[in-house]
Fold this protein.
Amino acid sequence: MYPVIASLTSYQVMLLSALFAVIIIGYIYSRKQPVSFQAFIEMLSFMLVGAIIGAKLLSLITRIAEYGFSAEEIMAPGGLVFYGGLLLSIPAAYLGGRIIGYGTDYIFDHMAFLMPFAHGLGRIGCFLVGCCYGIPYSGPFCVVFPEGGRAPSGIPLFPVQLLEAVLLFALSGYLLFHYSLKGRHGALICYLGSYAVMRFVLEFLRGDWYRGIFCGLSTAQWISIAIILFLSICRIRKRSRFSA
C-alpha cells in the first residue's frame, strides 16, 4: 500500500483527484444539458462546505467517548466520516440553490451519479492508507497491510474498501445510464437508498470498530436504517397522495 504520495497522504491525493474528476466531468456533461457549469460549480461549493462540516461533526460525535472534547482532536487533520458529510451536503446544496436562485432538483437528477463516483475514488484512498479496513480474512483476495499504515499489519484482512469502491462505481454507472442520460427523476433517492443498503451490509465486513457500536450495530448502520425508513415513509406518503 502507499500511505504517502508526494508529501500528501494517499487519501488526500484521491480526494483531490475525485474533486478534479467531478469538475471535469461536470463541465463536459453541463455542455450537453440545460445546467450551466457556473450553477454546477456554485452548488458543488455549497456541497463541499456542508460535507466537510458534517463529516467532521459526525466524527467528533462518534469518537467523543474515546477522546472527549479535545482541542487537538478537533484541529487534527483527517477524522472525517462520510455519512456526516453526505447528510449535511444535501441540505447545504438546497440552501445554496435558494441563495443563488437555482433549483437543485434538476442538478441532483442529472449529477447524482458523480456522488458515488467521487466516493469510490475516496475509498481507494482509504485502501492505500489502510483506514476503514476489513475484518480478519484469509480467503481469496485477502490483503495484508505493511507497517506504517492505519490498518493492523501482518494480518490478512478482507479488502472491504475495494469492494465498496467497485460497488460505488457500479452504482454511479447505473445512475448515469438509467437516470441522467435518459432525463428521469429520482436519481438522488435511488442513490441514497441503494447506498444505505450497501453500507449496512458492508459494515459487517469492517474491522475498525472504533467508529461506534450501539446494540450490536455501528453508527453507519443505524444511519442506514434511518435513511431507509425515511425514504420508505416518503414513498408511502407519496403513493397515498396519488391514490387519494
User: Anything to note?
Assistant: The chain has a mean pLDDT of 84. The longest strand covers residues 4-5.
